[in-house]
Amino acid sequence: MQEQEHQQWMQHALQLARHGLGLTSPNPPVGAVIVLNGEVLGEGFHEVAGEAHAERRAIADAYARGNGHLLPSATIYVTLEPCSSVGRTGACTDAIIQEKLGRVVYGSTDPDLRHQGRADALLQAQGIEVCPGVYKDACDHFLRSWFHAIQTGRPWVTAKVATTLDGRMTRRQNFWLSGVETLRHAHQLRLESDAILIGGNTLRTDNPALTIRTPLQTPSPRKQQPWRVVLTNNMLSLPPMATLFTDEHKERTLLWENVKDFRVLLNELYTRYGVVNLMLECGGRLLRRFLEEGLVNEWMQSISPMVGAGPDFLVPGDFLPQEFIFQRESLIECERDIIIRGTLG
Amino acid sequence: MQEQEHQQWMQHALQLARHGLGLTSPNPPVGAVIVLNGEVLGEGFHEVAGEAHAERRAIADAYARGNGHLLPSATIYVTLEPCSSVGRTGACTDAIIQEKLGRVVYGSTDPDLRHQGRADALLQAQGIEVCPGVYKDACDHFLRSWFHAIQTGRPWVTAKVATTLDGRMTRRQNFWLSGVETLRHAHQLRLESDAILIGGNTLRTDNPALTIRTPLQTPSPRKQQPWRVVLTNNMLSLPPMATLFTDEHKERTLLWENVKDFRVLLNELYTRYGVVNLMLECGGRLLRRFLEEGLVNEWMQSISPMVGAGPDFLVPGDFLPQEFIFQRESLIECERDIIIRGTLG
Fold first, then answer.
1. What is the mean pLDDT of residues A40-67?
2. Residue A309 banded pLDDT, cuts 50, 70, 90
3. Which positions in chain A touch B327 (Cβ < 8 Å)?
4. Using only C-alpha atoms, what is the Rg of chain B?
C-alpha cells in the first residue's frame, strides 16, 4: 500500500523532472513534490543550472501556497538523492533539515562521489526518515545521460538518422525523406539536446540551421538553442555565408578542424560547454567513425517507406569492428514513416 | 441495419475464404455462408482447384446439417461473384438456381471476362434477389493477387527481405539476422505462396530448403510445398547436392538459366504452374532487377536491431530508375525485430 503510494508520487516527481529536460545541463533534470495525507503541499523542478534545485523550489512553492507550517510532518519525493555539498545554491539536505521535513523518499542515488549516499546519514542524524531507491529503475533510466556524463566525462551521444527501407540517407534532387510529423520528432530531440554535431559535408550540402523549430512540445522560454558543432578537415572549405555562421544564433556555432581523438572532443564539449546530451545529425561517414569508436549511446531512426532512393549508405564500407545491437525502447508509426528508438549496447 | 447484417456475414465469409489462402491457385480463395434469420445453415470455402467451389460446399454443408429444406428462403453470402461458366465443377449460378436460394449477396465482381457481371442477370431471371458489391473493398483487397494475375497474366510478387537498421542483408559468419518469431512470419508467407524464387548465389551461399516449417498457422494437410524457383546464369555452377535438388520435394524445384525477360518467366509460372502468389527470397542483385522492371507488388521487410552488420546492400548501385513508394499495411513488433509490410505503388 505504502509502496504503491510511493511509486505514484515518484511518478509525479518524474513528470515534474521532465519539464527540465534539455534545460539543466550540466546539472540533471530533477523533480520534487511535497505531500501530506495524499495532498500536494508544494512541487518544483530544477530548471537551469545555477538556480534553485528541485527540493528548494518545492519548499518555496509550499510557502507560496500557504503550506509552510505543514512541512515538518510532510514527505518530500525527489527523483534523485538530495545533494549534500554546497554548490552555487546551497546543499538541499540543509534546506530539508532546516524545514524539518518528516521524510525523504528518493529514486536514484547520486553518482557524484561528493554526494553519493551521504544524504541518508545526514538526514537520519536529524531524525528524518529516509527511503532511498523508490522507483529507482525509472529514475535511473530518465537520468541515464547525466549518469553517463558524470561517469565518463563525455556527453551521452544520440545518433539521429533518417533512411529509406534499404538504408539510404538521401533522395534524388534532395527531396526530404521524412514527413512533417517525423521532423517534429527530430526537433523534439533537438529540444532535449545541448548540442548537435554535423560534419563539413552536411554543412556544405544541406546548409542546415540546426535550430529547434517544430518540436512536439512548446519549448520553455528558458531553452537556449543547442550548440551547433561542426567537424571539418578543412575550415577554409566551408562556405562563410552558411546559416550556422551568419544567423542570429551564430555565437552558438562551434567549429573543430582535424579532430583526431573524438574522446577528447567529447570531453571538451562536456567540461567546457556543459554538453550532457549530444545529438548527431551527421552523414554516414562521420557516423561510422562514432560507431567504430564505440561512442554512440542511443539511436533514433526514422524509416521512410521507399526503396531505391539514393546512392548513399548509412555506414559505407565493410563490416564494422563489432556489431552494435540495439535495445528497442519505442516504435512509432508517424504518418507514412516509422520511428524506432533505442539504446546501443 | 440490413447493411450492417450484410457486412457482418460477409466478414464471416471472408474468414472462411482465408482458410483457402495458398491452396487454391490458380483459382481464388473464396468463402460462402448460407444464412436464414440470423442462423448459419451451411458454410464452406474453396480448398483446391478442381474441387467444389465455396458455394457448392456451403450448400453441401447445409444438407449435411439437415438444413437442405430451408435453402429456398435463405441468403448466401459469398466473397466473389458466383461463377457462371462451366469449368471442371459446374457453374455455381446453376447450383444456386437449382437450390432456389432466395438471395445472393456477394463482394467482389469477377474480373474474368467469361463471368464478369453475368451472374446478376442469370440469377435475377430466376427470381433470385442479387446484392453485389457488399464489403467490396475488403474482398477486393483479399483477392488482389488473383485479380493481378488474371489481369496481367503474371503472379503477384511479394519481396521478403530481412535487413539490419542500415539496410544490410547479411551478418558476420552467416549468423541469422532474424529472431525465431520473425522466421515464423516468413514461413507464414511461404504458406500463403505458390512459389518461392531465389538466385544461384543464394542457393550456393545458403543452401536453403525453402519449405514451410514453422508458420504461424498449422498448414492444411492439402497444402503442397511451394514451387522452388532458381534463376541462374550458369546451371553448371550450382552444387548438384544442394537441398533443393536432393530433398523429398525435389520435384517441386524449377530451374531457369539466363532469363532475359522476367515478364515471360512470370507468365510461364502463372500459366504453366498456376502460380498466383510468388515470393522473392533472393539477394539484393536479383531483387534490384525485379524492382527495376517494376515487377514487385508487395514488400515484407523484417528489420533487426543492429547496425554495421555486413558489407551487402539491399539494392547495390546507384539510384533506381524510379523510387518505389510503399503503402504501409502493417507494422508488427516481433521480439527484438520489427516487421513492416505493404504494397509498392
1. 96
2. low
3. 305
4. 22
Is pLDDT at B175 greater than 80 in this prediction? no
Closest listed residue to residue B181, CA positions, set B212, B217, B214: B214
Residue B195 has pLDDT above 70, yes or no: yes
Distance from CA of A342 to the nearest CA of B (A): 9
| Start-to-end Cα distance in chain B | 36
Q: How many residues does chain B have?
A: 345
Residue (of A26, A51, A75) closest to A272 by Cα position = A26
B146: left (phi over 0), alpha (psi -120 to 50) or beta: alpha
A contact test, residue of B323, B337, B343 with most A CBs within 10 A: B323
Output the pLDDT for position A116. 82
In A19-102, which ranges are continuous DSSP H helix?
A: 54-64, 92-98
User: Average model confidence (pLDDT) for chain A?
Assistant: 92
Handedness of CA B250, B267, B169, B316 (dihedral sign): positive
Sequence-distant (6+) residues with CB within 8 A of A71 are: A34, A41, A59, A62, A99, A100, A101
Q: Find the angle CA(A223)-CA(A225)-CA(A226) to the nearest 5 degrees.
A: 105
pLDDT at A317 over 70: no
**What would the mean pLDDT of A299-304 be, rounded to a whole number?**
95
Round to whole Å and give the CA distance between B223 and B277: 14
Contact between residue A62 and residue A70 where contact means Cβ atoms under 8 Å apart: yes
Interface residue A315 vs chain B (CB under 8 A) = yes
A181 annotated active-site: no
> Residue B253: pLDDT above 80?
yes
Residue of B nearest to A342 (CA): B305
The reply to whether omega before A26 is within 30° of 0 (cis) is yes
E strands, chain B, where? Answer: 31-36, 39-45, 75-80, 103-108, 129-131, 156-164, 195-199, 227-232, 253-257, 277-280, 298-304, 306-307, 324-334, 337-344
Local confidence band at B275 (pLDDT 50, 70, 90 cut-offs): very high
- Helix A2-18 / helix A54-64 crossing angle, nearest 10 deg: 100
Is A54 in the B-facing interface, judged by CB distances under 8 Å? no
Please tell me which residue of chain A has the smallest CA distance to B314.
A166
Q: Is the pLDDT of residue A5 over 90?
A: yes
Alpha carbon distance A92, A288 (integer Å): 43
Cell triple for A325: 545491437
Mean pLDDT of the region B277-282: 97
